[in-house]
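Recap from last week: sequence in, structure out.
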Amino acid sequence: TYESDLVYKIHLGGLSRESVEEVYIFFLQEMQSKNDFTMPFRLLVYMTAIWMDFFKNTDEKRRKRKDYRLPPIIPLVLYNGAPDWTAPLHFKDKVAHSDNFNGYVCDFEYILINVCKLDRGEIKKRNTLIDNILLADQFRTKEAWLENVKDLSDRVRKLSKEDQNLYTGTVNDIKDIVNSSHNVAQHSVCYRNTVK
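Predicted structure tokens:
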């Protein structure tokens, strides 16, 4: 069992239900104030766990077909630390001598979003679970949370029940943090979804 922070599954429009219609968007969301230089390896472990789960739960006849494909996974890291992110964005940069074995070393790049640099007004134009997590991630003090909790609650009430439940777990973690500290950024809050 591997735990990721948040895994979203979306359907690509225009593809038939018989083909691989799922795209797994993997959100690794952590409130951390420093770089994580193990991030490419951690993402590889999570992505492999998702693919193994998908493969295991696919009908055996279907997965043996020549046209069988695994779904794409888009790894995305949300970062809210003050210093610039300097950890490698490519997996191959964590593999020794990868340049000497060009084309033969496993590689992928993840998307990095620096939450602190996002425009709050732009985020507020949309109202999805991720938008609300991004908004919540920008409030670093107890005062900021108390000032914005009503607006966040009003936005979340407009989400689907499933997204509301995911967000509720997050809010409960945040309440604990706010009650125990004045500085939210000192703590780590994870939005958990288990991949087996």
